[in-house]
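Name: feruloyl esterase
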Amino acid sequence: MKTNRLVFAAIAACLSLVSSTFAWQRGSSGCHKPLPEVLTPGGPSKNLTLDSKSQIGTIVTRRFLTYLPENYSKKNRDVAPLILAFHGQTQPTWSMENITALSTPYFNRDAIVVYPEGLNYKSPGQQWLGDPEAPPSSVVDDRIFVEELLDYLTSTFCVDESRIYATGLSNGGGLTNLLACTPALNRRIAAFAAVAAAFYTDASLTEPLFGAGCDPHLSYGRKIPIMEMHGLNDSIIAYDGDNTPAPNTIPLPEWVAAWVEKEGCGDREPKVDILDGGNVTKSSWSCGGWKDVFVHYRIDKFGHGWPSTVWQGEPFENLRLGPTMWNATSVILEWFGRWKLEPVRELK
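Structure predicted for feruloyl esterase:
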């Protein structure tokens, strides 16, 4: 049954991301260096910091919660995938770690997971570029921070640079999209997955970011694997984009259509699967030999949050309208496992 693809996707996700499907790996300059003393493979996540130029005109300390999986080499010599997971507006990094469960062996035994922290530059708290309440990129540009972060992580850990991935929730999902729009970053990150993502209209912001400002510079058939999951009953980032009285976001069908066109798949009809007893509509586009290069999950009877089978507590349950019968983390990890750079395509 198609429903079982979601319900039992955890089984596939528990398989190593270091799959025999990928015979070629690219180890980073951090291989064989001593690990930071505070980190132990399979141990608790720890906060690390770096000096950043992301606050324009000054140097600011940026933090990121870091997890080494239990299968990670204690001698820092075996290459591992890397996942960046961006929190929602005002959400602590430990909370993002908790609701995604990306740091649990049940889902992930092999990938390094880093939870970057947005700057608490102004009210309402830590947040990312792309929200109307966040400072513009002329003041704080989190894309600079992500470039610096990738430089630090690849020079500190033994990262397979062909398998770096980005995911994010809400405001963090919006940033994930901005990374995909940025040529310098979409050439370093193999795939992007956003959940309940906030893609604000150009009119809602002081600068164009998600609309006219998104130019990924795709050419010569290059494509960017992108996934997005969104609840039809999202009361924070409405599926149709009407967040009245809050600023409007791009309607999801319009955002999807724009990216499908960017990918060069605009002349293709999506493959549509009805999953989870009719509650989930999965639309996937394949073109130019790239299978499922763009995937969108429309989730009925679901609000604003990260789909999972476990109780997440408040405010998450009130916002997302309760647990689901499937785990977004399983689906995302399985999909990430299909992609790597050079070339960024599913290997068959």
